[in-house]
Every structure is written in structure tokens, then in C-alpha cells.
Write a structure and sequence with these properties.
binds magnesium ion, binds ligand C2E, Diguanylate cyclase (GGDEF) domain-containing protein, 11 helices, alpha/beta
């Protein structure tokens, strides 16, 4: 312990460091038991096909219902799960759960599942995906995997081979948070990607900043030229939706259309979306 080393020699711990370490240890222990105790749950957020004026699918977003702390967001526990080697089993659970739940939906909509870069390189991803599809009976073209640019940082044979193996299963690949990382255009050329998800930060500024609009427009036309669809993330207002549409995005996602919601609320949501498109804001979109 630092104290026992005597005065003037106790700089190994900053004030509060021990407390932070303790908090972290508790979180790690809680995370391990959360997995065993079934405290994880998937929420689903609708993705809207803007041109066709309909719900095209849902993105599965992981939630942790902590017995004392309540709902903990993924930004807080996924990095920890990655650190302690829990992300592979957790990611496998997410895949299986998402495929099983989507197979029960009343319509053949797509389900999008987020992957951690560690899971991407685990060596067992193709097998896990194949297994989840086989067990659930979900048609492969209904599954979309969302990867981030950090999965593609190593532009090598292995990365390409993982993507090709996944594509051979018949599933689709989306590039998440596009525009925030390195956003190398060569990724779009070199890797078999079906969809670009434009990061919410561009959508946030799209009404107030013409540069944000031009960037969204350019990514969209780049995507169209490469036969990729483009989704705008984080649409919160009617004004943003109209701008996104003007920029030519094929799909949209955000609180404006619907928040992430528990699986059991999904059927209700779909019924509402069908009966009254006003609930979704879809009435704003002129039918082509
Ligand atoms: P993401 O994949 O980019 O997901 C979008 C995030 O934006 C979600 O946060 C969603 O709730 C939020 N969002 C959606 N619409 C809006 C909006 O209109 N405004 C704002 N401000 N936010 C909106 P969430 O659920 O907290 O997830 C955060 C991140 O955690 C995800 O970002 C994803 O990277 C990661 N994540 C979530 N579930 C999983 C999972 O099952 N596995 C892995 N590896 N990562 C996951
Ligand atoms: Mg995502
Ligand atoms: Mg995203
Ligand atoms: Mg994001």
C-alpha cells in the first residue's frame, strides 16, 4: 500500500483512485453475475425506409437492468465487458436473442445487431452467426450486422475474409457511425459493405450548418454510386427529417420515429405505424 512506503513517497495513488478502482471492481463483478442472472435485455429501435414510407426493420440495442442501479446504458458496460473477456459470450447471446425474437415478429422485417471489434476478430464469429440463424430459423437476408470502422482498421486479408464469410451466409453488413472515425473511402471500395450509417452528429447539425448538409448529401451519393444504402442516425425533429430526405438518404432512424423499446412493445408499434402513420411522423413524407 502506498502509505506504508512513508511520507513523500506516496504518489502512486492519486486521491480518489482507490475509490474508483473499487467502483470498477464492483461493476466487473456485477457484470459477470448479470450475465449468469439473465439481467440483459434487447431493446429495438425502428428503422424507416424513407422512400417507401414504411418500417424496414429494427436495431437491437443491449440493455442491462441492474437490480439496484436500474437501467445501465451500453456505453458504460460494453467497454468493461470487452476488458474482462465477457464480450464474446455476451455478443453471442445478443445474436441468438435478436435472431430468436425477430423470427417471432409478425412481419419479415430486418433486425440489425451491433458487433464489438473484439467479437469481429474472435475467430468464431461466422460460426456464432451461422448457429444463431440455424437455431432461430431466421432467413439470413433479415439479419444485418453493424460493424464500426475500428473493425476495418487492419486492412488485411483476414478482415476481408471474415466479411466474405459473413456475406456467404447471406446476411448484410452495415458500417455504423460513419464519418466519426477515420472514414477512409477505401473501406467502401475494398470491403463488401451493404449499408452506410451516417453518424448522428451530422444529423444534429444538418439544419443549422450547411457543411453538415453537404457532407450528408455527399456520403449519400457516394453510397448510391457504390450500390449501398444510406441510413441517417439520430433524427429527432421534423426539420431534420425533411433535410435528410432532401439529402437523399434511403433510410432514417431516431427518436422522431421511435425510441428503443422492449421487444413486447414491438407488435403494438407496428400496428400503430400501419393504422396511423402520423404517430411515426411518416405522414410528412410525400408518397412517391
Ligand atoms: P449505435 O449502434 O450507434 O446506436 C445508436 C445509439 O443512439 C443508441 O444508443 C440509440 O439509443 C441512440 N439513439 C437513437 N436515436 C437517437 C436520437 O434520435 N437521438 C439521440 N441522441 N440518440 C439516439 P444506445 O442504445 O445507448 O447504444 C450506444 C452504443 O452502444 C451503440 O451505438 C452501440 O455502439 C453500442 N451497443 C448497443 N448495443 C450493443 C450490442 O448489443 N453489442 C455491442 N457490441 N454494442 C452495442
Ligand atoms: Mg448501431
Ligand atoms: Mg450508430
Ligand atoms: Mg453512434
Amino acid at each position: 500500500e502506498a502509505k506504508s512506503q512513508g511520507r513523500g513517497n506516496c504518489c502512486f495513488f492519486e486521491p480518489g483512485m482507490e475509490a474508483r478502482l473499487r467502483v470498477r471492481q464492483v461493476l466487473e463483478a456485477d457484470l459477470r453475475s448479470a450475465f449468469v442472472n439473465g439481467e440483459f435485455e434487447l431493446f429495438y429501435q425502428p428503422q424507416i425506409n424513407i422512400a417507401a414510407n414504411e418500417v424496414s426493420g429494427f436495431e437491437a440495442l443491449l440493455r442491462w437492468r441492474h437490480p439496484e442501479r436500474g437501467m445501465i446504458p451500453p456505453s458504460e458496460f460494453i467497454p468493461v465487458a470487452e476488458d474482462i473477456g465477457l464480450i464474446s459470450p455476451l455478443g453471442e447471446w445478443v445474436l441468438m436473442q435478436a435472431c430468436n425474437e425477430a423470427a417471432q415478429w409478425p412481419r419479415n422485417l430486418k433486425v440489425a445487431v451491433n458487433l464489438s471489434p473484439l467479437q469481429f476478430r474472435s475467430g468464431t464469429l461466422t460460426q456464432s452467426v451461422g448457429n444463431a440463424l440455424a437455431t432461430s430459423g431466421l432467413a439470413p437476408d433479415r439479419l444485418e450486422l453493424e460493424i464500426t470502422e475500428s473493425c476495418l482498421l487492419q486492412e488485411n486479408e483476414e478482415t476481408l475474409s471474415i466479411l466474405h464469410q459473413l456475406r456467404r451466409l447471406g446476411i448484410r453488413i452495415a458500417l455504423d457511425d460513419f464519418g466519426t472515425g477515420y472514414s477512409s473511402i477505401s473501406y467502401l471500395r475494398d470491403f463488401p459493405i451493404n449499408k452506410i450509417k451516417i453518424d448522428g452528429s451530422f444529423v444534429r447539425d444538418i439544419c443549422s450548418r450547411s457543411d453538415a448538409f453537404v457532407i450528408v448529401q455527399s456520403i449519400t451519393s457516394l453510397g448510391a454510386g457504390l450500390m449501398m444504402s444510406t441510413v441517417a442516425e439520430g433524427i429527432e425533429t421534423e426539420e431534420q427529417l425533411l433535410k435528410i430526405r432532401e439529402a437523399g438518404c434511403t433510410e432514417g432512424q431516431g427518436y422522431y420515429f421511435g425510441r428503443p423499446q422492449p421487444a413486447r412493445e414491438l407488435v403494438d408499434f407496428l400496428n400503430r405505424a400501419e393504422l396511423s402513420s402520423v404517430d411515426l411522423g411518416l405522414s410528412l413524407i410525400p408518397r412517391d
